């Protein structure tokens, strides 16, 4: 039997390679993760929703077990959320749902997953979820300041960012809910 006689195997290899690329390739993985729901949506509509779901869940399970056994810090929650979003889109479209449902329900699913992540992390760390977001944004801003200091920029530009770090953090915190939505 040739490789072309097994459409599920081809589908599985494509989805598994995308799942592992989203996990292990730094920049390209983020781009793949953004487009992952659409890829699963299209595969679910072209091949079959059940085959696409099986291929995704098996490849995700392999990744999850690999991360657990090797104690790797991988974005498994993000990959699972984006994969399930694509499968949800395919399911709604297969039921002849309106375009509004195809867009709004997965968007609400992603917002709920982000909210649950922050609530759960805050509960586990015994921290207010909003303080967790502030801590995360502060760490990102500090890393950016370190990066800017290594680049050939004027000292006054770097000092401007350092002096206004609190204002930048406060500004991002104020628009964070809108960015999530």
Tag the structure with descriptive keywords.
181 residues, mainly alpha, 85% helix, elongated
How is this structure best described in words?
The protein has 181 residues and is mainly α. Helix content is 85%, strand content 0%. The protein is built from 8 helices and no strands. The longest helix is centred in the middle third of the chain and has 27 residues, at 99-125. The termini are far apart. The model has no long low-confidence stretch (mean pLDDT 88).
Task: Give the biggest sheet.
Answer: none
Let me know the number of strands: 0
Described by the principal axes of the CA atoms, the overall outline is elongated
Helix content: over 70%
Span between N and C termini?
Answer: 49 Å
Q: Which value, in Å, is the CA radius of gyration?
A: 20 Å
Average pLDDT: 88
- Tell me the series of helices and strands, N- to C-terminal: HHHHHHHH
Q: Provide the structure class.
A: mainly alpha
Sheet-strand content, in percent, reads under 5%
Low confidence ranges: none
Count of helical regions: 8
Summarize the structure.
By secondary structure, the protein is an all-alpha fold. 85% of the residues lie in helices and 0% in strands.
Helix-strand blueprint:
Layout: H1 7-24, H2 26-46, H3 49-70, H4 76-94, H5 99-125, H6 129-150, H7 155-163, H8 165-180
Helix pairs in contact: 1-2, 1-3, 2-3, 2-4, 3-4, 4-5, 5-6, 6-8
């Amino acid at each position: 039997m040739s490789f072309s006689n097994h459409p599920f195997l081809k589908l599985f290899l494509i989805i598994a390679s995308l799942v592992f690329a989203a996990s292990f390739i730094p920049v390209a993985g983020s781009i793949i993760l953004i487009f992952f729901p659409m890829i699963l949506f299209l595969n679910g509509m072209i091949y079959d929703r059940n085959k696409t779901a099986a291929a995704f869940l098996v490849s995700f399970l392999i990744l999850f077990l690999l991360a657990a056994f090797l104690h790797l810090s991988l974005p498994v929650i993000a990959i699972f959320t984006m994969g399930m979003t694509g499968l949800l889109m395919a399911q709604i479209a297969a039921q002849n749902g309106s375009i509004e449902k195809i867009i709004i329900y997965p968007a609400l699913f992603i917002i709920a997953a982000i909210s649950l992540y922050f609530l759960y992390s805050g509960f586990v760390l015994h921290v207010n979820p909003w303080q967790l977001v502030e801590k995360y944004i502060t760490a990102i801003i500090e890393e950016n300041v370190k990066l800017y200091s290594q680049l050939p920029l004027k000292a006054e530009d770097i000092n401007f960012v350092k002096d206004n770090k609190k204002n930048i953090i406060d500004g991002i915190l104020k628009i964070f809910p809108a960015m999530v939505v």
